[in-house]
Amino acid sequence: MDAALDAALRGPRGANPLVGAVLTDETGRILHTGRHMGSGTPHAEVDLIAAAQSAGTDLRGTTLYVTLEPCHHTGRTGPCSQAILEAGIRSVVCATADTTETAAGGARFLAANGVDVRSGLRADRARRMNARWWACQEEGRPFVTAKIAATQDGVVAAEDGTSQWITGPEARAHGHRLRARADTIMVGTGTALTDNPRLTARGPDGAALPEQPRRAVMGLRRLPAGAALDDGEEALRLPTRSPREALDRLAREYSRHVLIEGGPGIVSAFLAEGLVDELYWYTAPKLLGCGRRAIAQLGATTLSDALPLTVDPAGAEADATTHGIGLLGQDTLTHLATEPAPATERK
C-alpha cells in the first residue's frame, strides 16, 4: 500500500482525488503500478489493468492494492469496480472508503460478486494525502488552485504597472498546462481591467487547445466594451467580493476545479478565508525592491497568525518537480499546500 500511495503522489491535484494502485503476485512482489493523472484520464485501477493486459500478465492469484475504494459510477470514465471484476482480479485491498454520493459502492459490488475485499490499510495516510479534496467534498465547493508569478522579493508588477513578463517561457508554458487541468479560470476585475487577459489554455505552439476551461471574472466593476474576455463567448461574471459566494455560484455552474490567476487581491482574499487548496509559486531570478506585492493583507498581525504552508510533493510527474520544487528554465517552481480547517470550523 505504501507503493500505491507513492504512486498516487505522482498525479496532479484537482477535481478528482489522488489515487494510486499496485498489483502483486502471490508472493507479494509488485507486478504493475497505476496512478490517476487528472480529470478525464484513466483511473488508477484502469491504468494498472491496461498495463497488466498489455504485458500479458496472468491476473489469477494477484492482489490489487488501491489507495481509495474503487468507484462504482460512470462519469467521464467507466466504473473501476466493473473493470476490476472483468479483469479477473479476485483480491482487493483498499486504504480508505469512498464516501462521496456519486462514487461509493465499489467495495460492496465487488464483494457481492465473489471478490475478497479488505479495507483500512494505511487509511490515515490515505486520508491525509487527500485532506483538501475531502474538505471540498464536505463543503460542496470546487477544488481551488492559485498561481503566482513573482520576483525574488515577492513583487508581481513594477511600480509603473509593468508585469509582462516576470517569468520566462518555460514557466508560462507550465501555467498553460495548469489552465488545461482546470474547468474554470478566474481573475478579479482589477486584473481583467489592467491586463485585459484572454485566459485561454494554449499548447507549446501557442495555439488554443481544442477544449477550453470556462472563464470567470469576480468583482463589482464592469468590463469595457471590446475587452478580451468579451470575445463572443463572454466570461461568467461573479458580481461579488465574497470568495464563498463566488465558489457557491461556480458549484451551481458545475465547476469542480477552479484556477485563480490573480491579481494579488483575489488570491489573498481566498487565502485569508482558507479557500486555496494548492498554490503554485513561480519565482523569477529578479529583484525590483518596490512595486505591487504578490500577497495583500491576510489579517495576520503577529508571526503566530501566519498562514502555514507545506511543500506539496503531489504532481511530481506532471510538474517535473522533485518533492514539490523544480526549475523551469531560470525560474523556480514551488508547489505548496494548505491545511484544511477542522471540520467544526468549516462553513
Automatic annotation (TrEMBL):
Keywords linked to the UniProt accession: Hydrolase, Metal-binding, Multifunctional enzyme, NADP, Oxidoreductase, Riboflavin biosynthesis, Zinc
EC number of the protein: 3.5.4.26, 1.1.1.193
The record, for Pfam families, names: dCMP_cyt_deam_1, RibD_C
Q: Which residues bind NADP(+)?
A: A149, W165, T191, D195, L199, G263, P264, G265, I266, V267, S268, A269
Q: Which cofactor does it need?
A: Zn(2+)
Domain CMP/dCMP-type deaminase as annotated: residue spans: 1-109
Q: NCBIfam families in the record, alphabetically?
A: eubact_ribD
Q: What PANTHER family does the entry give?
A: 2,5-DIAMINO-6-RIBOSYLAMINO-4(3H)-PYRIMIDINONE 5'-PHOSPHATE REDUCTASE, DIHYDROFOLATE REDUCTASE FAMILY PROTEIN (AFU_ORTHOLOGUE AFUA_8G06820)
Family to which the UniProt record says this protein belongs = In the N-terminal section; belongs to the cytidine and deoxycytidylate deaminase family.
Q: What is this protein called?
A: Riboflavin biosynthesis protein RibD
Q: Which organism is it from?
A: Rothia koreensis
